[in-house]
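An example makes the point: we let one protein speak, the chain in one-letter code, the fold tokenised, and here it is:
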Amino acid sequence: MAFSSFSFPPSTPLFPPAATVETYLCDYASHFHLRPHIQFSTSVEDVSYDGAKWVVVTAPTSPDGTVSHSLPRTYRFDLLFVCNGHYSVPRYPSTPGLEPWLLSRRASHSVFYRNPSISGAPFSLGKSHKVLVIGGGPSGQDIVADLHGVVGCIVHSASTHLAVHQDQDESEPALRLRGRPTHFLDMAGGKGKVEFEGGIVEDNIDYCIIATGYQVSFPFFKAPSMSRYLIDGLPPSLPLLPQELFNTTYGVFPLVRHTFPFPFSNSESMPPPSPTSLAFLGLLVRVAPFPLVEAQARAALSAFSHPDRIDWTHESTDIMERYRTLKGQLGLEDSAAEDKVSEAQIQKAWCRFEPMEQFDYRDLLADLVDELDGTSPSHPDGSWMPVARSKSWERELYDHKDVLRRTWRALEASGEAEDWVRGIGTGDHSEEEWVDLMWRVVRKGEGDEKSGEKA
């Protein structure tokens, strides 16, 4: 998950905690002398287009997050990168009965979770508690792993889990796998009941953590004039490619290679912005973000420098092809064009990549940079470099990420992980050292699992 231009330090754990990743990002900023170019404690209050440049209004913020609206500053830019992420506005399920749980502070979104003591609950989670975790994505899985052995019982609800019968013996008594919740029932005496697919009911639940994702949000696009370019809601169904952008809350549609817009429609009052003057980075999910965003930034800079070299017809054809592919995968070929439910399903899947797609995508961005830059000279300091293409070991090891994670967690639990990683990455061939370590961990995990099956 490292940027291609900056490695994690030697002996870093294979699955580093958040504090280690934060240190890595701070070291990256220091190494490349980025701090003088960053405005800390600043809120972006408004972004608009004035017919020539992007106008950005900012305001200082205090440590508690309070914005000082009385001290705004205004800037005008030729190129705008939107990089505010998509992990701040919670997305809640519409399951009946959930609202009373939220209001009574017996349920909260995973955005508020830090550890069992800071989970959003009004109490520290411990052995006396039965906790429901909803969501089978990375957040849900990480929280289940974090709570394992800390709370008395975890009920993990995900669409990928089979709806097993409540009385069936389970391999791990402290972990119960359930399908999607169908109804949150009334709470009595601080304990609650939840019904799941198949009619299964779990009672005596003390707390619920909802790891059901987030909504893409751009609160700084406030100006009415921005509604000509970015619309909240679902786009019309293809085959006609819209000339506006749509914030579907799952992503932004349509974007060339998931990064920058197509040409906007002309306005009577002012010329529209150049499509390559605006780029959205990091909207894709189920990916390793750092190398991917690095490639997106490089592609966006190439497009900004050479907008006349973009084959818009080719790019629109790629959009249409992905749309048709997703429609087929979701079984929506026969859906009516005006079916908003079908369109919502497609848009939900639009930015969600299957495991190997992220590597294909990085290579497609590298292709775009090659096409646009052509024989453009490198920057004198060597920074104008090609996008790092994916490597075979990345794909191969990503296919083993589950056993890699399980085995590494077991090594951490046994106190052996530090010995395994000590000194890795210090030699002249540091990448090969890391790859060799990961394959050794995979082989150990697969061997331990086979031994367990025989036993």
About this structure: The CA atoms of residues 125 and 316 lie 50 Å apart. Residues 392-454 form one domain. Confidence is low (pLDDT under 50) at residues 165-169. The first strand starts at residue 42 and ends at 49.
